[in-house]
Amino acid sequence: MNLLSEAFVTRIGRALLAVLALTLAAFGPAHAQSTHIQPKLVAESPAPAPGSATTLALTMTPEKTWHGYWVNGGDAGFGLSVEWNAPEGVSIAPFRYPVPDALILFGMMNHVYEHPYALLTEVRVDERVAPGTDLTLSGVANWLACTDKVCVPEKAVISVALKAGDGAIPEAARTRFDGWRALLPQPLDRHGTWERRGDMVRFAIPLPASTAIDAPHLFAQTQDVVDYPAPQRFSRNGDHIIIETRAKGDKSGPVSALLKLGGGRGLSLQFEPGAVPAAGEAIAGPSDGIDMALFWTALGGAILGGLILNLMPCVFPILSLKALSLARSGGDANTARVEALAYTAGAIVTALLLGGALLALRAAGEQVGWAFQLQHPVSVLALLILSLAITLNLLGYYELPTFGGGQALAEKGGAAGGFWTGALAAFVATPCSGPLLGAALGATLVLPAWAALPIFGGLGLGLALPFLAVGFIPALRNRLPKPGPWMATFRKWMALPMGLTALALGWLLWRQTGGEGWHYPVGAITMVLFIVIQIGAQQRGEGDRRLFIVAFGLLLALNMVQFIRTFDDYKATAAIASANGSTFSPAALASARAGGKPVFVYFTADWCLSCKANEAGAINREAVQTAFDKAGVVTLVGDWTNGDPVITRTLAEHGRNSVPLYLWYEPGATKPEILPQILTPGLLTDTVGG
User: Fold this and answer.
1) Is the pLDDT of residue 512 over 70?
2) 362: pLDDT confidence band, cut at 50, 70 and 90?
3) Would the pLDDT of 274 be above 60?
4) What is this structure's pTM?
5) Long-range CB contacts (< 8 A, 24+ apart) of 167-171?
6) Domain 192-288, what fold?
7) Which residue has the higher pLDDT, 654 or 16?
8) Which of 51, 93, 257, 469 is 20 to 30 A away from residue 586, measured at CA?
9) What is the CATH number of domain 2-183?
């Protein structure tokens, strides 16, 4: 914040600044239109007495939809600063802020004022100042004004006319200032204690049980102590209020904070390191409820996003399996309904399990995001083997009960087959983040676990909606083709996309291992081919079961054990380092932005087909790169293939839990523009002005 203040103004001398202040004051209405929050400096007494003090108020009036910030703005803001031009014998105390509100935007918590507010300060006049002395006070104020879409650093010269006098306070001014003072937090006369326990931070506030508390919230003024958007749990243990929330940073020593009590009331607090009593009887607070608008918006976005996933390339191989299953049903209503419900259950349960695992890992302190299951080679190898097995089954090398056999097996396996097909669809498809899905999953970062899980379930429901509709709407089901000889040919053609999926997974595994572990997927492929051949031989009444068991054991020992041992502590390989971009890091971003050039940052992963489609179809196109070169655009690439805590935190800072994410920084801009998840060459060239 100090650096930003220095960037806005250079001290050019007290006399010149005073002249500038009076000039701007004369044209105040014209100047006021240049800012989205209108500042005005007023004094309780225009004639402060020498040897005493008077109160000044800096009133801030935001335009509609705009807001200003508390002294600690939270995750994405900063408070106001003033570089004063004070006459001789005048000293100015720091501003005191009224109780703020908590505002969550894109997964980040901001400490804001969305209504007119006033900052108060005390101005003391030295007793040696002669009565009648001109004490006109001026300064350059800097602050941040934001909406839910854009932030603008603003500044203005503020001034108030003062003259040393008798300290008289007009009655109207006293009433007005008393109203502002009532909104300031009251200092607590005793300090509290605080401590860290693992990833939690705990506070104890000495507060008598008779003190009324309504919807409390703790605003930490000291940074690097608490994770601002994390839920806060309040309880009472005797004459202490106990607060527990998620820790952030490694701050030690005293902590300053503000406890919001409700009704605009608050307490300013000081905490010293020390023991905190055990939690007691729970107190309802804002964290015990949720932002219902955010919840319903995220749930709707997850359902629609899951529905749109059915159109994404990464899901097509799984759709082919379900299409074949529905064709086999021949339009039978009961079979179609059973398989549709089973498919839906499989997709929802798998999405819930993946979401639950993600929330558990994050609660344990891991920096992980959606699609974490594809960030480890062992998981990718398992999917590779599964894809190979399905491909060979579709080609007819062996049979599964759900694809053939008698009527009893078909009926028995219909629900099971539908369930596991839905589970596979959710497992493989959800990493492909499509429109609406990124923002919906980003909301799970700030919602409590019980509210976040339904959003993951909504994703699975959206993915299954087309088949649920076919199962329960006869008009749609009647449009399905009738069973016939064409199904054998169709089944073999469906092996093509699944085989391409297996090739893509093999390539991803090669990328994750840096090319050094290529012999492991080759070994896995060999093992699967051998198993399939033996199963097929057994089904046809051929082959030796004992030979199969011995050979299978040898292959398993030679391939899987060594693979797991080798990659138990695998290291991520170098980032993609695209020919058209450098590797992303916060330092690289800061360096690129310091150069005064436009910066394009994109986050991708080798397992994200949407990312690769955007790269091939838009980012790496010659016209786009020519426009980038002409404008001097610096491109930074963040590779999330193997997981990266820095990238995970960066995604979360922009309200995202998955890739792709595309950021465009104009020179001098404080915030990036988040580009759509589906890019076109025209969109990028228009963005760069090419």
Assistant:
1) no
2) low
3) yes
4) 0.44
5) 167/45, 167/47, 167/48, 167/49, 167/52, 167/54, 168/45, 168/47, 169/44, 169/45, 169/54, 170/45
6) Immunoglobulin-like (2.60.40)
7) 654
8) 257
9) 2.60.40.1250
